[in-house]
Amino acid sequence: MRYLKATLFTLLTPSAVMAASTVAELNVLGDTATFTLSEPKTHTIPSCVSSDNQNKWAINLNSLQGQAMYSLLVTAVSKEQLVTVQSAQRCESVVDVEQVQSLSLSVNKQSAGSGGAWLYKGDGVTKVGKVISFEPNVYYYSPIEGTQKYHVYKPSIGKDFQSHYFLDAECKSEPYQTYNSRNEAVFYQNVKSYFHFSDPNIQGNRLSDHGNAPVYKQWGGTNGCVKESYLAYQENRAIKLEKTEHPLCGKTPCWIK
């Protein structure tokens, strides 16, 4: 690592060096990482770069040097450090994005550690990591303790137990849900708790274990709790849900702020 660091510094040349700046966005697609800095480029940009990608940089993650540079970028995001980039003066990993030749980090004395969005546990106080980028219902973040690759947080929140099964006429007992292979923790707003599927191999955790008991289903709107036309033993796909905690957020959903 010392050798690599020395190489990164010695390769820098004034004509193609981007002034030190914080990372504004970092994304990974396949074997390529692209990023932008908070300050626009000031050097002469290669002609291969498209107008939409003027301020983007690309790194090839198939090479050891590319992997090392990506690790530095993730560290820069989580620690809010300044990044200095040297251009390769060509497009390589992406046909219309400027390739990075080398980069280095430096301490950001102006940073107070609060810039950009952060991911917090459900208590809204315990900081988990720095949000790198996001898309609908998916957040990519760098843990505060550092990492060599980004982590993913996908909020899973339901309003209530609509379309769930119950064994009581008021739909107030333990809920059952049609089983799927994704046993992720879902936060239900009506009861303010996380639930996941219980062990189907334990007697009573399958709706069908309850024989001739009547089945009720929770519907939305004014329909409420409705008795179904079949009995419990006839519904073998439904598994009981049980309270749990989210492995990252705890008892309530994480905060992004």
Please give a handful of descriptors for the protein shown:
257 residues, mainly beta, OB fold (Dihydrolipoamide Acetyltransferase, E2P), five-stranded antiparallel sheet, 19 strands, 10% helix, disordered N terminus
Task: Please sum up the structure shown.
This protein has two helices and 19 strands. The chain is mainly beta.
Summarize the structure in words.
Helix content is 10%, strand content 39%. It has 257 residues and is mostly beta strands. It folds into three domains: 2-106, OB fold (Dihydrolipoamide Acetyltransferase, E2P) (Beta Barrel); 118-153, no CATH class; 157-251, no CATH class. A hairpin with a 4-residue loop joins strand 14 and strand 15. It is elongated. The two termini are 34 Å apart.
**SS-derived structural category:** mainly beta
Largest beta sheet: strand ordering: 1-5-6-4-3-2
What is the approximate shape?
elongated
How is the biggest beta sheet arranged?
6 strands, mixed
C-alpha termini separation:
34 Å
Name the CATH class of the largest domain.
Mainly Beta
C-alpha-based Rg, rounded:
26 Å
CATH architecture of the largest domain: Beta Barrel
- Summed up, the helix count is 2
Topology as H/E string? HEEEEHEEEEEEEEEEEEEEE
Low confidence ranges = 1-15
Number of DSSP E strands: 19
Round the mean pLDDT to the nearest integer and report it.
85
Number of domains: 3
Content of β-strand: 35-45%
Helix content: under 10%
- The CATH topology of the largest domain is given as OB fold (Dihydrolipoamide Acetyltransferase, E2P)
